Amino acid sequence: VDGERNFHIFYQLLQGGSVQSKAEFKLTKPQDYHYLNQSNCYVAEDTNDKANYNAVVHGLICVGMDNAKQHTIFSIVAGLLHMGNVEFDEEDTAEGEAAIVQTTAAVHALTTAAALLGLDAKAMLKVITEREIVTRGELFVVRRNAQNAVYARDAIAKSIYGRLFDWIISQVNISLGQDPQPLPYIGVLDIFGFESFQRNDFEQLLINYTNEVLQRTFNNQVFIAEMELYKREGITVGRIDWPDNRECVELIASKPTGILQLLDNEAANPKPTDAKFLALLHRTHDKNPFFPRPHPKDMQEMFIVRHFAGCVSYTVGAFIDKNNDTIPKDMADLFLSSSFPVVRDLFAEEANEKAVAPGKKKTLKSVAAKFTKQMQELVDTLDGTRCNFIRCIKPNALMKVGYFDPRYVVGQLRCQGIMQTAQVLKVGLPTRVAYSELVGAYKKYMPPDAQRLFSQQSDATLITAILWAFQVPNDSFKLGISKLFFKAGKISLLDAILKLNWNTDGPRIVGRMKLWLARRRWRVALAKVQSQLELKSMLRRIQYRKDAVRRIQIWWRGFSVRHQFLKQKAAAVTIQSVFRGHKGRQAFKVKKVEMIAAANARAEESRRQAEEAKRAQEAAQRAAEEARRQADHALREAQLRAVADEERRRMEEDAKRAEAEAISLARAAEVAVREAELAATEAAAAVEHERQAERKAMQEAHDLEMRMIREREEAQKRKEQALLDAAALSAGLLGGLATVNAMNSTQGRNVSVVEIPENISAENKEQLKQLNELLLSGAIDQAEYEELIPFLLEAPQDHAPAAGPVLTAEEQESLNRLYNTQIYGIQIRCPACGVSNNTANGNNCTECGSMLTAAAGEHGSAADHRYYGARTRSMSTLALSTPPGTFTMDGARVSIHGGFFQCGMHGTQMLQDENYAEYTVYVLRCGWQPKESSAPTYWLISHRFSVFEKLHKDLKHKIPPTVAALPSFPRKHRLGGMFAGRTGNSNEIVEERKQGLERYMNEVIDICARLPSTLAVPELDRFLNLSRQVQQIQRQLGMLAGIEGGVQPSNVHLEGAEALAAREQARLPTELPTPLDEEELGQTEEAVHVLLSAIRNAQGDLRRNQEVQTLLKVCVQLQPRLQMSANLDNPFANVELIPRAMQCQEDLETTIGLYNDSLLAVTETYTISGANQPPAPFVPGQTNSYQRSYGY
After folding, report:
1. Where are the alpha helices (DSSP H) in 982-1025?
2. What are the distances in angstroms from CA 487 to CA 154, 400, 436, 493?
3. Which residues pair with residue 861 across a beta bridge?
4. What CA–CA distances, in Å, run from 448 to 196, 444, 456, 500?
5. Pfam families, from UniProt (predicted)?
6. In angstroms, what CA-CA distances link 1021 with 886, 887, 1050, 1066, 1071?
């Protein structure tokens, strides 16, 4: 290594040896020796090699070594220098390349080294260049190549030097002697530092392993031992992390997978190689974090170890040879034959070694095993002592004087764990004193009464009292089990405590100690009471959690069973549908195959018949040909032999008959062929006809579907156009009947008032005048005014009705369709699909099946009256003219708007949103009773749990905590959101929330009623829809008072029915219709009976009968509540009243049917009488139609 020297004794011998000894040892200068000139460093700074040589000689003399032994020692050292100069060349032999010594310098160095070691030069050369292999009793001699010869030379030199060093140490020990009972000692261990060169070999691995072991010892001594002391004393100083290198030490030396152990295992194999050892390392420690993977091209030459100081790469080239510490037999025999006694003593162990017993394998000696054992002995020695560490820090890497590299120094401090050591000192407690020392210093000087007080107390208690008496800060010390620990820099406090002047400060300190003891006894008693209370609270919480866990288990088991049942049910339905489809397809395939087979069979039969006919035709042709040949033959015979004419005529006749038969057979064959071809054609036509029929049916189905879609679209367009035309017609009719003026009401609103015409009756004029006054006073709004105006603008009965504009046939058809449509419920738009539905058909959408609920509007602010779930009506807009009221207390009752208010939880209802997810709304039953009235008027308000929570947040912002403390809002369920859409809808949670919300609303209303008059709460008013309902109730009471002054109903129950109908008309979409109670049901029944009597007794067009229209309006408005009262599935309906409600609903349907039949008869009468057009019926959705009718 550049800048480093070899062992100092070599340079000391060259510089300090006498001239005679140098000449005898043939020594020159350091530059001439291979073992000294590799680093180009021959002189060490501040080192006098000559003086040090004299010191070594003096030391050897002191330990009793005479001149002869010293001469032998220096001769061996000189011989090692000459041995390093032995260089080798190679020659080619039959066995391969072999090392030889042929240069003059090498031969001279070999001869000199052998002479200085007392050996034979040839024998020494043979040991270096050859090796013996013994197998099964046979001896083989193998020559080494030049490289292996160099390894063998260096190994011999290292072995001799190491044995010489051990021999000198043993001689020193013998000279100094050893005490059988050694005294305590102080040892100093100076170790070499961490090494990382460009090429690192086996030596660097052992050196770095030593540093790793000593670093682990440092960690144990500084970190682990200190932390264990704190742990034993029960002191907490916080967590301290330090670089733990135990895994790296285990990687190098652990058994059986450590690097050194794997090296020994590979060396024990028959043919060990470094390549096998390296491959085994990579396989074994491939995933070890302290064994990084090198570059793939370097994996065949090196391995990397992550040490505490950094990563070091080790090049594997001679690990096996360098690890072998076994001396070959020929080498031991060589040195045992030396002429120097000292050299023979170096190998005395081999000389005394006995032969290995038969069948027993000789233990292989290795440098790694020996080094590991020595390191373990060193660690055991260090662990048995108290170590103090001195860290040497290099100021720079350039070895320059006066240059300090901060980054280089900080890197060394981090690698050596100095940062963590400083942290331990920072949070540690270096100053310690035993309790016994302080107790002994104080107890004997304390007064008798103080001694009695502290006689039953522990030493720690007395020490705590002393520290409190001296007013020592609590962060300056820690109390252990047996010791008192002070932080760094607090030793002055300990001196002040130990050097107390009892004459002057003693009474004051004892008094403070007594005061501390009294306070401590009081705190202990208080802590016991608090512990008992906390224990009881903890037991209650544990029981509550057990109950909660039990409820969760019950719910989860039920949910799991239901979920599994639904899955099985869905799977069964799917399997059934798939199986039925599969069976149907199979049946269709079988039928299709049968039809094709039948067609093929018919075609095959036709082909067979045609072939038979063809064969018959060919046979006839052959018969005819044979007949012709026979005729020719007979003719020739007749001509040649001149037979008689009769015979000739007979044969000719036979020939003619045969020819006629042949012709007839040929014709029959042609007919058969034509029939076969016709049959084949018919079969093909049948198949083609079936295909065309199938295609035609599919096309017809497609055309039918498209035609239905077009018809629906055209019908929708015609319906919309008819509505627009009817609206235009109605507007024209109203515009032609009266003049409209714009005026201001008493509330400052702009309203449209109809001027009283002259062509109406006096009674209608008076009623129109009263209606104008109600509009201007604000008792009714513009929409209701426009609904009532057409009743009063019709001409007297003795005049013929105006024909009105002429409608087209399409417009008349649209109006007739609207005229004859029977709809008795309320139109509600489905929130899921947008289809308009009627509540008379049920509470589910006819298109998608979803529940008909009011869709949530856009999010608004708390100042908006629609914020808490409200939505504007589609028929008319209810303007809130009355400002929000203020809650007050009137005795024990809550008062607002001049009446008494009450609120309670009515129940809950499960609804669905647009995504078909279920949610729960909580229904409140609110009532307002005027102070002069005897019975309240009720309405229902429904909100989700989140809307209640929003109200709570608004009230918290509105009401200061100094004025009033709001009650706690019911908490959300602890599993909310875990099972989407289901957890908050379970019966237990809904019931729990219902009770909590009822308690919360009662307390909130009571608090708001007790607030100062300057602090209004409009948020609660809007949440309960209170002012709107009170305004509507007051308006209806005013209307009833007006009715009492005019036309009186036929029955006193009609007043209550009309009031119910008015409240139902004012109901918002978020307010659910409620079932009728017994009194309300009686009023409804009476209204239905009166309507039936009025229809039966009326004459003419019922749409012009004001009494019928008024009663019909009341009954239709009450129909939703009547339907809910007659619904068996409604949990809010009164079971005892359901039969009466069902009978009343049936009577109402019969009455409306009678009303529609009467309208149909009136329409036919108009047609028979020849009138141009019947009066225009009421068009739903138009508030200014000529006449409003509620029967359709």
Report:
1. 987-1009, 1018-1023
2. 56, 40, 20, 10
3. none
4. 71, 9, 13, 18
5. Myosin_head (PF00063), PX (PF00787)
6. 8, 9, 38, 17, 15
Task: Please count the other Cβ atoms lying within 10 Å of the Cβ belonging to residue 766.
Answer: 13
Burial class (CB in 10 A: 0-12, 13-18, 19+), 641: exposed
Which class for 814: exposed (0-12), middle (13-18), buried (19 or more C-beta within 10 A)? buried
Q: Which residues pair with residue 941 across a beta bridge?
A: 924
User: Do 202-354+363-421 and 429-503 come out as alike in CATH topology?
Assistant: no
Residue 123, token pair as written in the block: 């024998």
- Mean pLDDT, each 10-residue run in order, the chain (1192 residues): 81 89 89 87 84 90 88 91 90 84 90 90 87 71 84 86 89 76 78 80 88 84 76 75 80 88 85 87 90 88 87 87 72 82 81 50 70 87 82 84 89 75 70 76 71 72 77 76 74 68 72 81 88 93 93 93 93 93 91 89 86 85 84 76 73 76 74 71 70 73 75 70 50 51 71 76 75 75 68 53 44 44 42 53 53 39 43 34 74 87 86 76 87 79 86 86 85 51 69 90 89 81 83 66 46 65 68 78 86 80 80 85 80 76 85 79 56 45 35 32
| Residue 128, φ and ψ in degrees, nearest 5 | -75, -40
User: 1067 is written with which tokens?
Assistant: 């109901």
- Name which CATH class applies to 202-354+363-421: mainly alpha
Q: How far apart are CA 108 and CA 844, in angstroms?
A: 118
How far is the C-alpha of 84 from the C-alpha of 500, rounded, in Å? 74
May I ask the CATH architecture of the domain 888-970+987-1038? 2-Layer Sandwich (3.30)
Comparing C-alpha atoms, which of 125, 101, 102, 121 is closest to residue 111?
Answer: 121
Sequence spans of domains, the chain = 8-176, 202-354+363-421, 429-503, 741-792, 888-970+987-1038, 1072-1163
* Rounded Cα distance, 31 and 43, in Å: 11
Which residues does 602 contact at the CB level (< 8 Å), separation at least 6? 679, 683
Quickly list H helices, 738-796.
Answer: 762-777, 782-792
Query: 744 pairs with which residues across the strands?
Result: 750
Query: What long-range pairs does 698-704 form, CB within 8 A, spacing at least 24?
Result: none
Write phi, then psi, for 451 (nearest 5 degrees). -65, -35
Q: How many residues does the chain have?
A: 1192
Decide if 70 contacts 36 (C-beta within 8 A).
Answer: no
Which residues are CB-contacts of 820 (< 8 A; sequence separation ≥ 6)?
Answer: 1156, 1160, 1192
Burial status of residue 168 (CB atoms within 10 A of its CB: 0-12, 13-18, 19 or more): middle
Long-range contacts of 356-361 (CB under 8 A, 24+ apart): none
Q: Sort strands 431-434 and 302-307 into parallel, antiparallel or unpaired.
A: unpaired
Asked whether the beta carbons of 1042 and 910 are under 8 A apart, the reply is no
Write down the architecture of domain 429-503 according to CATH: Up-down Bundle (1.20)
Tell me the whole-structure pTM to 2 decimals.
0.41
Residue 368 near residue 323 (C-beta atoms within 8 A): yes
Q: Using CA atoms, how far apart are residues 901 and 933, in angstroms rounded to an integer? A: 13
What's the CA gap between 897 and 937, in Å, rounded?
14
Contact partners, residue 39, CB within 8 Å, separation at least 6: 1, 2, 3, 4, 5, 6
Please report, in angstroms and rounded to a whole number, the separation of the first and last CA atoms in the chain.
112
Characterise 1189 by phi-psi region: left (phi > 0), alpha (psi -120 to 50), beta (else).
beta
* 211 within 8 A of 307, measured Cβ to Cβ: yes
What are the C-alpha distances in Å from 87 to residues 90, 96, 1033? 10, 19, 125
